[in-house]
Structures are given as structure tokens and as C-alpha cells.
Amino acid sequence: MNYKHKIIKALYKNIFKPLAFKMDAEFIHDSISKVGESLESCEKLVSFLLSYQDLRLKKTVLGVSFSNPIGLAAGFDYDGHLAEIMKYVGFGFNTVGTVTAKPYVGNKKPRLARLPKSRSLLVNKGFKSEGAVVIASRLDTKNLSGHTIGISVGSTNSPSITTINKAIDDYLFTFNLFKRRKYVKYFELNISCPNTTMTESFAEEKNFRALTKAVVALKIKQPIFIKIPNEINEEECDKLVRVALSQEIRGFIFSNLVKNRNNQAFDKKEIKYFSNFIGNFSGKPTVNNANKLLAHVRNKFGKEATLVGCGGVFNANDVVNKLNCGADLVQLITGMIFEGPQLIGEICQELTSSS
Ligand SMILES: Cc1cc2nc3c(=O)[nH]c(=O)nc-3n(C[C@H](O)[C@H](O)[C@H](O)COP(=O)(O)O)c2cc1C
Questions:
Q1: What is the pTM for the complete model shown?
Q2: Which of 28, 178, 235, 339 has the most CB atoms less than 10 A away?
Q3: C-alpha dihedral, 81 to 82 to 85 to 89, nearest 10°
Q4: Could you report the per-residue pLDDT of 140-155, keeping only the tens digit for each?
Q5: CATH number, domain at 315?
Q6: Nearest CA to ligand 1 atom 4
Q7: Is the Cβ atom of 83 under 6 angstroms away from ligand 1?
């Protein structure tokens, strides 16, 4: 670790984090988003302090160039405020969203909380979004040339979306809006569906086929990555991968949040405290199944599939584990919140020193 990362890590762990973790998690997140966006005027300084660049980390995946294999996962930058600054924080790519066609104010608070002993976050935003049009106009004003930006697309959380066909139209609106924007280098298709009025799920084969068919018909040039649910078995996973590959969609992200509170990674006392809170969980509890599915798909489908490992990355070792399971790229959120913003540069440096 270099001296800049050491100093920032010490400041983060000994001063910022103990204070911030005493305050409301969503308030801190919103404040960081505001400060982060205002730092666009000092990108060089941010990059000097945090990022680590090395040409050996460069990768081209599905025709897209990545300055390093570590990306920001969907859910940290819902509305694109941080789209420009994240490259200077050190990320090789960053996802905006999940973006939905129409705005949604989000589920009732509290909808974000920390579980430090379990190295996890509780999330219940329900696809909070300012809506695709507002987000696209915000991104249009940013200087994103040379950045690798992805848009995660989901369907609006609205009681008016009651059928699969309505939800598909909702997805298509957002894809159509972004597909010709030059700064969009890849898409994520988020198939988790928080709608309360729609009982069907896009993780069901029939619905997933209808959705992917409709998306592919838009003739989108950018590659699409399917965000795979975490708590599915290998058979269910194979069905989704086969359907996607049959439509020439080659990218998969393993994976999303977990629901099951009996997951062995939870500290028992800590998870009990949250028994009255609704939500799903990130971080350590996601690791085992995400890595298992990742390795399974790599073994079964070989190079036909392009894989992103996501979930519970807190250090370079966690990244190496995902690469060894077959990941081409890796994404994170929770690790950065627990370890500090130097984590990405720190990981990149360690990856080059071990290569
Ligand atoms: C606060 C928060 C919000 C999230 N929102 C989304 C989302 O809108 N769309 C999505 O595909 N994943 C979302 N996720 C899941 C993450 O993208 C990722 O799959 C998961 O957190 C595991 O990675 P991590 O352990 O590095 O956080 C969210 C995660 C967090 C922590």
C-alpha cells in the first residue's frame, strides 16, 4: 500500500467512519454524493490521492475498454451525480442506477442501515430513482469522454405497472433513451422487481425470455450484462444464462443482494436487531452463493459467457478469489463503505504487485 492510501485509510477508519457510522446511513450517503459531485472541479487532486494507474490493469471486455477491472456496482450512484468523479476515485468502470423510466421517491425510511459485525448493509430503496429523463439530462452535462459508464435498467416501482408487458415497455423506454448516448459503454439489465402489484418475476424463464427478446429487438450496440439474483440454484441460473446466450446477450453479473436472514455470514445478535426492518443485504452474506454461481457458469459455459463478480469485496484477496472463480471484471459497493475510498486504488496496486 502506498503512503497516500495509508494516510487516507487511517483518516477514514479512525476519524470519519466512527463518526459517520453513528449517523443515519442515508443522510451520510446523500452528503457524500453532494461532496463527491462538487469534487469534479478538483479531479486531478482526487485522482492523485486515491487512484492507482497501471497499464497492466487495462482490459477489453466485450469490445469495451476498462482501465482496470474494478467497477462501482449499481446502487451507490442511483441518479448519476457521481458518474464523472468515480473514475478519479480509481474505478475502471461505474454503473449509474438502477435507473427506471418514471421517478419513484423510494420506500419508507429507514431503508438503508449498516451491520458492521456482519460486514453488510440493509437495503430497502425499492428502485428509488429520479427517472430516466432527469438522469439522462444530468449525465449529458458531465464530461464523460474517456470514462466507462454503464446504465443499470429496471422497471419503475409503480402500482400502475401490473403486468409483465407493461413492465417490459417501461424497461424499453429507458434503453431507448440511453442507447444512442456515446458515454454509455454498457448496460445492466436488473431483473429484480420491487413492484408490489405485480406478482410475476423476471427471473422466471418465460418472462425473462420475453424481456430479453424485446430488449435485443432494440438493436442496442453496447453490451448488456444480466444482473443475476443471488439466491437461486445452479439449475435456475443455467436457465437464465441459456436464454440470454440464445439472444446473443453474453454478460452476467454474479450477483445481487440476499434476502435469507439465516445466512451463516450474519452475526446472530446483529441480524436479530433488524428483525422489524424490511430489506435485503449486501457484503459478506452475498459472497458464498455469488462465487459458487460464478464458478459454476464459468465451468459450464466457458468463454461463451463474460462474467462480473460482485458481492463482498473488501480487499485484493476477495478480488483474486472472484478472478479465480472465472470473473473477467469485479464490482463492489459495501467494501468501499467499510474500508474507505482508497480501497479501489489499494486493490489495483496489490493486483499489479502480485502479477
Ligand atoms: C445501497 C445499495 C443499493 C443497491 N441498489 C441496487 C440497485 O438499484 N440495482 C442493482 O442491480 N443492485 C443494487 N444493489 C446491489 C449491488 O449492486 C451489489 O450487487 C451488492 O451490494 C453486492 O455487492 P457489495 O457486497 O460489494 O455491496 C445495491 C446495493 C446497495 C448496498
A1: 0.95
A2: 178
A3: 160
A4: 999 999 999 999 999 9
A5: 3.20.20.70
A6: 75
A7: no
